[in-house]
Specification:
The complex is a heterotetramer of chains A (about 425), B (about 350), C (about 350) and D (about 240).
Chain A (H helix, E strand, L loop, with lengths): L1 H22 L6 E8 L6 H17 L3 E2 L2 E9 L4 H13 L5 E3 L4 H14 L3 E2 L6 H9 L1 H4 L2 E2 L7 H17 L9 E7 L2 H16 L3 E8 L7 H10 L3 E5 L3 H13 L5 E5 L7 H5 L7 E3 L6 H14 L5 H25 L4 H12 L6 E2 L9 E2 L20 E5 L2 E6 L13
Parallel strand pairs in A: 1-3, 1-4, 4-5, 5-6, 7-8, 7-9, 9-10
Antiparallel strand pairs in A: 2-3, 11-14, 12-13, 14-15
Helix pairs in contact in A: 2-13, 3-4, 4-5, 7-8, 13-14
Chain B lengths: L11 H8 L4 H12 L9 H27 L6 H18 L4 H22 L5 H21 L1 H4 L5 E2 L10 H23 L1 H11 L1 H6 L4 H27 L1 E2 L6 H14 L5 H20 L6 H16 L3 H22 L6
Antiparallel strand pairs in B: 1-2
Helix pairs in contact in B: 3-8, 3-11, 3-12, 3-13, 4-5, 4-6, 4-11, 5-11, 8-11, 9-11, 12-13, 13-14
Chain C lengths: L1 H12 L2 H20 L1 H28 L6 H25 L3 H37 L4 H24 L13 E4 L2 E4 H23 L1 H11 L1 H6 L4 H22 L12 H14 L4 H21 L7 H13 L16
Antiparallel strand pairs in C: 1-2
The chains are: A alpha/beta (about 425), B mainly alpha (about 350), C mainly alpha (about 350), D alpha/beta (about 240).
């Protein structure tokens, strides 16, 4: 019993120590910036990639902007909007975060937008792609301008549009022949999966495809034999969809080979987790995808450096986009310092409003962007970036032995499309 | 739970307290809670936000304890039933524009109805079977919330109008504290009436209770209905406080969180979990934020504490209170106000 | 003689178990005729795996009366151990090809996983359940259940702290695809199916004929009686927990090609194992195998006729119905067990 | 002395039931323990059998102090306990139950010999050897309980309420089989409610009241004792 008492005493003491240390005012010229990500829970892997990318970006500038020392504050969203808001508010009030960047889930974005507005703390480069985020943002652009520079456009703009555009092109040019335009859509049963599925459906219908199936499965699903067998029986010629869950996606790709489905597989998000090839092996040959690539020299160097330092092959969206997002953020901070001579939440917000959201301040390859040519926001597109081949753009790629090559659009093509056999 | 002192012997103050089922210590803590937003460091918004969520957990713990600690059935679908209340209120607000102030009560009714049905369905079942049944009802409910996209928007998340048109947390905090008190008083009042005895009798031995004239059917259904109604009511508050609802709210792990608080706090005491929630959950938050380099550490600690309590301290923190503090405090109060604690 | 067998078979068909099995068989045949042989093949192969996961749970439930909520975590431990054995072996094989080693390497991984899982189970029993049992047997089923909830939380987050969040998986154990009745499937699946049948048969023989196996059954039926005939209860409890966890671990190891090991991988196997165990009756070990096939059929049919993602809703509803009308499971007797308290 | 108990205190949790109980049993004796309900008769047997841990006191069996030993070790030493409710393995056949009784014996020949002896004593069991124990009648269950205990080749049999829940002629049957065992040289300690019957067959007896040994002596003397007659026989 004494042990129990001691335990509770220890807990109380630890708790009060935390409280008191936190009350100590931060030293001058320290700039605390928040990094929001899912560091625990089902998406913890993406959170880890965020964290490592931010660490690398900080090391590059020696954690200094002018005479400000940058201190990152990791905010664990725990993949849960309620918990995320708790951590978010605490980071701002207790830890003194003046601004921040990144985020993964749309539901977290929607909950934290309100807090960013309430505390007037600018937050940029959140990934939550769902249309709901855009809708909420547009319902009060002034208020929600604190949550700006969405770093992943609504899926319809890129993934669905690009893949269907590619298929239309391939069919027209005879590089791919199908018996019937019969498609099956799959997706994880989350905001992301459903939204992407909806958009793909729209794009396919517009392209004259018949949608034979639409299946949304749980994030934990790894057995797709029944689903794929069903597709095979019905003779679908295109299977497309997305999931952020690596076990699901790699399982699906592998099993799609195993059941002998001869359709073209559009597996959006296959390489979001660095180890994907360890999980699929050759089964991924011929699968197409629409996504960011470590294409440029700088990007490849980054991927190599990250692998050397942290021991895993980074994924382009989680590692690359978070790296770009954070560097963009640093650029905004520098601009703020240059313009106002100091960095405060209000100043950063002014820069975002006056220069970023109007398209004056962009983040380009010259600035060190590794995934996109240029991240640019305009009044029309905000909070989404400008999407085209010279700005934010995902090409269509095809996997071959663990590597991917751009096959579409033709202007960027690295390799010819190999149709499924 | 007969009171040792008859009503007219007590002073007005004590009599009011007694009607509210509070001990002077409890009342003091309540006053402290009410004043907390004025005391640094708790005058910061994030701490108020934490406290609001913690108070919500505390209130959930009380309602959960009403079934777990009294009729000895662990409602493993508790989070889902709370979620049902949240969704009902939220959908009404979004679709029909119903005021959240009415909506949360409609949500409570919906959850209560489901609680009534669950109570009916688990009548023939005992112990682990009833827990598993409630679990599967919860899983089915969560599955429906995910799949009925046309109604709930599924995992896309349902945006919910907030209760107060302010970004400040104070109104929510005070509302939650009032709700906490109401939940406590209702549960306390019920459990110290004759019904509470019946609950305990059923929880300990259903057959014996039946033979001694207690009708388990009636009491079990009443218990389930009441507990679930409260859960739904709290769910409504959650919906209109967070402003977004996803089916994740109904996940089993959310039930586990409440369950851990109840068991560590001391089941069957009602106040144990509610009291513990404040220091414990806030300490956990601090561990999480203090050791952000070791994500998940706080959950390991959480689990280890639950295991240790289950093995070595089945009565939870409440039993420590009864063993070490209750009597000395009782004497202290007797001395100070001439009031004799009972209960 | 033949007549009496028929009579007994008929009588059995009229029981809840008989009706369920017969209905399942009819549904399976109807589905197969309607949609094709892949329904049958998928049901059978998935069923074997489910049965294996569920059996470990049923053993622990039946003998120790512990409603294991952390079963998925031992599944995760099995996958993890197999991963750390098979990765270096595969790396070695890439450098020094050897047909024989390629054939047996997966077995080495699975055996290691079984041993690690068994050890983990034994440690859990000694560290958690034994002290609880010593302290109090009152309300045992509920208390031990809640204890497993705590164990689950610790193991999931401990795994994340120690091993990180990477998806530790492999492409395959044995390469290649085979065709059964015109349905293609990977060699791994077929092997896992065979393996699960072998393990289940071996386990059945062990329980039925070995001295220790009989002692385990005896403990399950009457602990006091077991003590009276001289069975060492503590040893049997450690052993049983160890066997149950080892079964989860070997399932996790043999399914590594489908479920890479990561902290929260255990959730789905846990749900599925519980579906099976509730369906057939708590603690009915052999029924768990049949239940595995039935739940697998349910999954396949749900996916075929209703759509993905409903695999949780439809079985949940069916389980609720089972619990309402046949709380002891479709094969269970009406005798109230200790689990009923 | 086969079994010697000195100043035994035992109970459940904080509730003490036995107070300073002492008793002695010689080899091949047939001893009974009688007393009113709740006096602690079953508790005594359970404590000897190792099912309940004693709070203090000594249990010496064949010169070995076995107090506090777990039940399985006590059984191995040659003490078989037959509980009131039998604790049969209801989902096993009669034969399997019997074989479980011989769990501590590894030698096949010994097992067969013991099985033959037990079936010889209860031919009814042999007839039903393939039936599930759960389907037996009350009398048969009793026989199986005793038969199973005999399979461990015990030196000392502890029998709790052999007549409990049985019709009179079945009770007689059970008692006559105990008598046979006794003639085979087994030592038996029996706890009974049926005082007249018990005292008429046993050698010696102890009277337990409120957890204490109140009287002891040869059974015939006890049967004539005024106190015993008043309390138990209502005469």
């Amino acid at each position: 019993m004494a042990g129990k008492m001691r335990l509770s005493v220890i807990i109380t003491v630890v708790a009060s120590i935390f409280l008191f240390t936190s009350l100590a005012v931060a030293a001058e010229k320290v700039l605390k910036i928040g990094v929001l990500g899912p560091f625990t829970g089902p998406s913890a892997k993406s959170g880890k990639e965020f964290k490592d990318s931010v660490t690398m970006a900080l090391d590059k500038i020696g954690s200094k902007i002018g005479n400000y020392k940058i201190v990152p504050v990791w905010i664990d969203s725990q993949s849960d909007p309620a918990k995320a808001t708790n951590a978010f508010a605490e980071a701002i009030e207790r830890k003194g975060v003046v601004a921040g960047c990144l985020n993964w889930h749309s539901s977290v974005a929607i909950a934290c937008m309100d807090l960013a507005a309430q505390y007037k703390v600018p937050w940029i480069a959140g990934m939550g792609a769902a249309e709901l985020v855009v809708k909420k943002w547009r319902s009060n652009p002034q208020k929600y301008s604190y949550w700006s520079c969405k770093f992943w456009p609504v899926p319809g703009k890129l993934e669905a549009g690009q893949s269907v555009a590619f298929m239309n092109w391939a069919l027209k040019n005879g590089v791919w022949k199908v018996k019937a335009k019969k498609a099956a859509i799959f997706g994880e049963d989350t905001d992301w999966g459903r939204n992407a599925g909806e958009n793909l459906k729209k794009a396919l219908k517009a392209g004259g495809w018949e949608i034979a199936f639409e299946d949304y499965f749980a994030l934990t699903q790894t057995d797709f034999y029944p689903m794929l067998s069903k597709y095979k029986k019905a003779g679908v010629t295109f299977v497309g969809g997305t999931t952020t869950s690596a076990p699901s996606m790699t399982g699906l790709v592998k099993q799609y080979r195993e059941v002998g489905l001869k359709a073209l597989l559009f597996a959006n998000g296959l390489s979001w987790v660095g180890e994907w090839y360890k999980l699929t092996g050759k089964a991924s040959n011929g699968v197409i995808d629409v996504q960011a690539q470590f294409g440029s020299k700088a990007a490849k160097a980054f991927a190599k450096a990250k692998k050397a330092r942290f021991g895993y092959a980074p994924s382009a969206p989680a590692s690359g986009l978070s790296y770009d997002g954070f560097n963009f953020f640093i650029k905004i901070l520098r601009r703020t310092l240059e313009k106002y001579g100091k960095i405060t939440s209000e100043d950063i917000h002014k820069v975002v409003m006056d220069e970023v959201n109007t398209g004056k301040l962009t983040f380009t390859e010259a600035d060190g962007a590794i995934l996109m040519k240029e991240y640019k926001y305009t009044a029309e597109t905000a909070p989404d970036p400008v999407v085209d081949t010279n700005h934010y753009f995902f090409p269509v790629i095809q996997y071959e032995n663990g590597k991917s090559s751009i096959i579409f659009p033709e202007s960027m093509k690295e390799k010819d499309f190999t149709p499924p056999m | 739970m007969e009171t040792g002192v008859s009503k007219h012997e007590m002073g007005f103050f004590s009599s009011v307290l007694d009607r509210l089922c509070l001990t002077p210590l409890g009342a003091l803590l309540l006053v402290l809670l009410a004043l907390l937003p004025l005391i640094p460091p708790f005058n910061q918004q994030y701490l108020l936000r934490w406290l609001t969520i913690v108070a919500l957990s505390a209130a959930s713990a009380i309602a959960f304890d009403l079934t777990a600690g009294f009729i000895n059935i662990v409602n493993f679908g508790y989070a889902a039933i709370l979620g049902l209340g949240a969704y009902t209120s939220a959908i009404l607000a979004v679709r029909t524009g119903l005021s959240p102030w009415i909506g949360i009560f409609v949500g409570a009714l919906a959850s209560g109805l489901l609680g009534f049905l669950t109570g009916l369905l688990t009548l023939r079942l005992r112990g682990i079977f009833a827990a598993v049944m409630a679990w599967f009802i919860g899983l089915a409910l969560m599955g429906l919330a995910i799949k009925m996209v046309w109604l709930t928007r599924g995992p896309l998340g349902l945006r919910v109008p907030r209760m107060f048109d302010t970004s400040s947390n104070e109104p929510y905090y005070y509302m939650m504290i009032v709700m906490l008190l109401v939940v406590y008083v209702i549960c306390r009042w019920v459990t110290r009436s004759k019904m509470g005895l019946a609950f305990k009798a059923i929880g300990q031995n259903m057959e014996a209770a039946r033979t001694s004239g207690v009708n388990p059917t009636y009491y079990r259904i009443v218990n389930f209905t009441l507990s679930c109604t409260i859960a739904g009511w709290l769910g409504g508050f959650y919906a209109h406080y967070m402003g977004i609802l996803t089916p994740d709210l109904m996940h089993t792990s959310k039930t586990v969180e409440v369950l851990a608080v109840v068991y560590i706090g001391g089941r069957g005491s009602l106040w144990g979990g509610a009291f513990l929630a404040f220091p414990f959950l806030i300490a956990m938050e601090l561990v999480r934020s203090g050791f952000s380099n070791l994500p998940g550490l706080h959950l390991v600690i959480y689990g280890v504490i639950l295991i240790l309590v289950m093995i070595y301290l089945p009565g939870g923190i409440a039993s420590l209170y009864y063993r070490f503090l209750y009597k000395p405090w009782g004497k202290f109060w007797e001395f100070m106000v001439g009031y004799k604690e009972n209960d | 003689m033949l007549n009496s067998y028929f009579a007994r078979a008929f009588a059995w068909l009229k029981t809840a178990g008989g009706i369920t099995v017969a209905t399942a068989a009819v549904l399976l045949v109807a589905g197969t005729i309607d949609r094709g042989p892949y329904i049958l093949v998928n049901t059978v192969v998935t069923g074997g795996m489910l049965g294996l996961v569920a059996m470990g749970l049923a053993v622990i439930l039946g003998v120790l009366n512990i409603a294991q909520f952390a079963h998925g975590e031992y599944f995760m431990i099995g996958g993890l151990s197999a991963y750390y054995v098979i990765r270096p072996l595969h790396a070695y094989l890439d450098a020094h090809p050897s047909a024989f080693l390629a054939m047996v390497a997966p077995f080495i991984a699975m055996i290691t996983a079984t041993l690690v899982g068994g050890l983990a189970g034994a440690v859990t029993e000694r560290v958690c359940f034994n002290p609880l049992r010593k302290r109090s047997r009152a309300n045992w089923v509920m208390n031990s259940f809640l204890l497993t909830v705590g164990i689950s939380v610790v193991l999931v987050n401990g795994d994340q702290l120690l091993f990180g969040t990477d998806f530790k998986g492999i492409t395959h154990y044995w390469p290649g695809v085979v065709s059964i009745a015109g349905v293609f499937m990977s060699v791994d699946r077929v092997m896992t199916f065979i393996l699960s049948l072998v393990i289940v048969t071996g386990f059945w023989i062990f329980m039925k004929y070995s001295r220790t196996g009989q002692a385990i059954r005896a403990v399950a039926q009457d602990e006091m009686g077991a003590l009276m005939v001289g069975i060492n209860l503590e040893w049997i409890m450690v052993l049983t927990m160890s066997i149950g966890c080892a079964m989860a671990a070997v399932a996790g190891a043999s399914l590594l090609f489908m479920y890479p090991s990561y902290p929260t991988v255990g959730l789905e196997p846990l749900y599925m194992a519980w579906f099976v165990v509730i369906l057939v009756g708590l603690g009915n070990v052999m029924g768990a195998l049949i239940g595995g096939f039935m739940v697998s059929l349910l999954k396949v049919l749900t996916l075929e006729y209703i759509g993905a993602g409903w695999e949780f809703v439809v079985p949940s509803v069916i389980i609720i119905l089972v619990l309402i009308f046949k709380p002891s499971g479709v094969f269970g007797s009406e005798v109230r067990s200790v689990l009923d308290q | 002395m086969l079994l010697e108990i000195n100043n035994l205190n035992a109970g459940y949790g904080f509730l003490q039931i036995l107070r300073d109980v002492s008793l002695k049993i010689k080899k091949a004796e047939y001893v009974c323990l009688i007393g009113p309900n709740g006096a602690g008769k079953s508790t005594t047997l359970k404590t000897i059998a190792g099912i309940i841990k004693p709070m203090s006191g000594q249990i010496v069996f064949e010169g070995k102090d076995i107090s506090g030993w777990p039940g399985n070790r006590v059984t191995r030493l040659g003490i078989s306990f037959i509980s009131e409710e039998m604790n049969l393995f209801t989902n096993m056949t009669v034969h399997e139950n019997m074989m479980m009784g011989a769990y501590t014996i590894k030698d096949k020949n010994t097992k067969n010999r013991l099985l033959e002896f037990a079936y010889g004593l209860f031919p009814r069991l042999q007839e039903r050897s393939n039936q599930l124990a759960g389907t037996l009648s009350g009398g048969e269950r009793k026989m199986l309980g005793i038969g199973r205990a005999l399979m461990a080749d015990p030196k000392l049999l502890l029998v709790d309420e052999p007549s409990f829940g049985l019709a009179p002629q079945l009770t007689d049957q059970v008692f006559s089989s105990l008598d046979t065992l006794r003639q085979e040289g087994k030592t038996i300690l029996v706890v009974e409610q049926n005082v007249t019957k018990t005292l008429s067959v046993t050698d010696r007896g102890y009277v337990l009241e409120n957890g204490r040994i109140e009287l002891k002596g040869p059974s015939a003397e006890l049967a004539d004792n005024a106190h015993v007659r008043k309390v138990f026989l209502g005469v």
